[in-house]
Amino acid sequence: MRGRGDRDASDRDAARLSLVSVLSSGTARVVGSGVYLGRRRLLTCAHVVNEALGRTMFARRAPEDASLRVRFPCLPDGPALPARLVAWKAAHRAGAPDIPVVLGEPLWGGDLAVLELAVEPAAPAAAASWRYMDRGQEVRAWYGDGSSFTYADSSVGSVQHDHGFVDGAPRGAAIGPGYSGGPLWCDKEQASVGLVLGVMSPPDGPFRGENVLRRAIVAPWQAVERFLDATEIPAGPAHGDTRRPSGAVAPVLRHKLHTVVLNLLPDEDQRLRHTHRVLSALGLPGGSRADASVASLVELVLTQPRAAAVLTDELPRALRETALKLLSLCRGALVPGILTPLELASLLALLEGEPGRLLEEAARDALVNTTFWDEPLEARRGEPDDAVRRLVLALENYWGDSGSTDTPHRVPALLTAVEYVAALTATAQRDELREWVAAVAARIGVHESVLLSRRTDAEDWAHVRRARTTPAEPRLTVQLTRSPSGGHLCTVWYDPGTGEDGVVRQVLADDEPRGPQEVARLVQDVLLREVPAAVRARRSPLVEFVVEPEDLDLPVDRWDDGDADGGFPSVLGVEYAVVVRCPELRTQSLKRLRAWEARSVGFPAGAFTRLMPEHSEPEHVYRLLHQDQQTGRLAIGCSPEHRPRLQVVCLAQGIPVALWDRNDSPRRIDQLTALMLNGHPRSLPERVRAHRARTPGSAGEEAVAPVLVWDDASRTPPEPYWSDPSWEDATS
C-alpha cells in the first residue's frame, strides 16, 4: 500500500518534470508558471506573459517580438532558457470570447499563450501527459518555483466550455499569485487535467469574499486542446523528443530494476561501456563516469524509449534470463519502444511497397479480439505523419494478444501483425519478414511454439483472404441417378468459378444410362472443352458427384476413361480433385438443413473429430457430434460393419466435410487424420487427390482409398431446370 508520503513523491516526480517557472524580464523573479508540451513548446497564461513583460494584466493585443526567460525547477542548476511567444489567446469574459475582461471581474476564460524555447531542455525535463478534466477529480498545483512545500490540493467543482472551478480544502496552502499557468495534476489519472488561470475575485453584492478565497478559475484540458488544435500546435513530444517521466514508476518496481541492473552489470566499467553503446545507438551524447551508476542506468532505461531494447541486445547470451526480466519490468513501467532503432529501421525498410499497404488490413484482422482499435490512430499524438510508421509505432507499444493458443505467453501485437503480412507476400519477402520476426522474438523471449501458433493463424487467415479476393476454382457437378437397367443417368453443370450470376450452366442431361468408363470420358471431354489452359494451369478444376445415399461408396474417383490397349490409365481421382455430395440426407427435414447450415458457418474454423471403433450405434454418433456443435470436419474410423450405417447418420447430422476409407484398411484412421489436418481445411480436396496419385491402384486392401464428402455451403450444387410434379405431390 502506498503511503501519503509516497504519493507526494510520485506527484512531484511525475508532474514537476513538466513544470516551468516564467521569470520577469526585469528582475528575473518568478511571476507565474507554465507546463512543457514537448517539441520545445510550453504552455502558460497570456496574463503571465503580460506580467513578465511589465504590461497590464489583461492586455489583449499579443506583444510583438516578445522574448522571455524561463526555468525548469527540476533542473535547479540549469540556466534560464530564452523563449519567444508563438501563440496567443487573450483573456475574455467567461462564455463570451469577443468581450474583453477587465481587472476586477470575478472570472474569465481564454488567457492562454504558447512559448517556444530556443533549445531543448535537458533531462529529466519531460512533456506533460494529459487527460480531460471532469467534476470530482482531486488535483494538485504548485507555485511557479516548483518548491515541494507549495503544493495546493483542490477538487474540481465545475467544468464549463472555456473555464472551470476548483475548490481548495480549508487547510494547507491555497492557489494564489504565482500559480497561474501551472498544471493541475490528478494523481488518479496520472496526468494533468488543466491549467491554473487565477484566483476568483469576490464579486459585488452579498456573495462575500470569504466564500471564494479558495476557489480558483482553471482552463480545462478540453479548452486548452481546442486552442492548440486551432493553432496547429501539437501537445506531445516530437518523434526525436523521446524522454518520458519516470517518477510515476512505483518504488517497488524501481527497486527491482535496480537489482536486475546490478546483477546484469555489477562492474562500473561494464556499465559505462554499455551506457555508451546505448546512448550511441539512440543518437544521444556519450555519458560520463557519473552516468555509470546503477541509478543512472535505471533512469536511462525508464526515460529513454528503446534504451532497454538496445541494452538487452548488447548483453551476452549467458545473461539472457536476467535480461528478459529487465524487459519485463520496463513493460510493467509502460516504457515505450520494444524494438532497437536498428530493428525498427529494418522493419520499415521491409514494409516498403506492397507489404506496407497490407499492414493495416493484416493488423485489423490479427487484433480483432483486442482493444487496440478502440482509439483511432489519428488520435495518438506524438506519432509521425507517415501512415505505416505511425501504425508500426502504435502496434509496437501494444501488448494485447488475439491468438488462438491457450497459454499465458504473449506475442506482441506488432510481431503478430507482421506475421499476417508475411503470409500474404511472395516467397522472398515472406522469408525476410519471418526472419525479422524470429530474431526479435528470440531477443524479447517469445516462446517459439507460441510464435509458430501465430504463424499458423496467419496462414489460415491468408488462405481465407485469398479465397475472398480471388475466383474459386472451376467446378464440374455431375448428378448420378441409378437406372433400373443398370448404370447411371447423368446431369452435368459447369461453373467457371467467376462468381457471376447466371454463369453456372447445365451442359448435359442424359436420357440413356452410362457405365463408369463412359461417365469418366464424359467428365474429361467437358472439362477439356470448357476450362481454358491458362485457367487450368492456375487452378485445377474440382469435380463433384452428387449421389444418392446408397451410392456414397461408389468408386467414382477410380473411374478410368483410358483405352485398355493404350498402355496407361486416365483416372478421374488422380487427375482431378474428386469429391462427393449427398444433399438428400440434409434436405429431408428442416431440422437437418439447419444443422448443416450451422456447422457449415463455422467451417473451416470449426472443430475436427473422429469416429472410432468404440462408436457403433447412432446414439454414439449423436452424442459425439453434439459435444461441440461447431464441429464441421469428421474422419470416420469405426468398425467396417458399422461404417455404411454410421456415415449416413453423420451426414444427416449436418457434417459438411467427412473422410473415410472405402477399403476399411487397418491403418485408415491415422492416415485419414493426417490427410485432414496436415494443411489448411480448404485445401483438403487437393491433398486427397495427391494421396490418390501416390497410392497404387493394385495395392489391395492395405491401401487407403479415401472417400471425401465435401458439402460446401459456400457453393451449393445447382438445381435441375425441371421438376417432376408427381414427386412434389407425393412428398407434400
Task: Please give a structural write-up.
There is one protein chain. With 732 residues, the chain is α+β, with helices and mostly antiparallel strands. The chain has 5 domains: 4-230, Thrombin, subunit H (Beta Barrel), CATH 2.40.10.120; 251-332; 341-469, no CATH class; 473-541 and 549-576; 583-710, no CATH class. Helix content is 36%, strand content 19%. It contains 24 helices and 22 strands. The strands form 4 sheets. A 6-stranded antiparallel β-barrel has the order 1-2-3-7-5-4. Strands 8-9-10-13-12-11 form a 6-stranded antiparallel beta barrel. Helix 12 crosses helix 14. The chain is elongated, with a radius of gyration of 37 Å. The termini are far apart. The model is unreliable at 1-12, 237-242, 379-385, 404-408 and 721-732 (pLDDT under 50). Residues 488-713 form the vWA-MoxR associated protein C-terminal domain. This is vWA-MoxR associated protein C-terminal domain-containing protein. InterPro entries: Peptidase_S1_PA, VMAP_C.
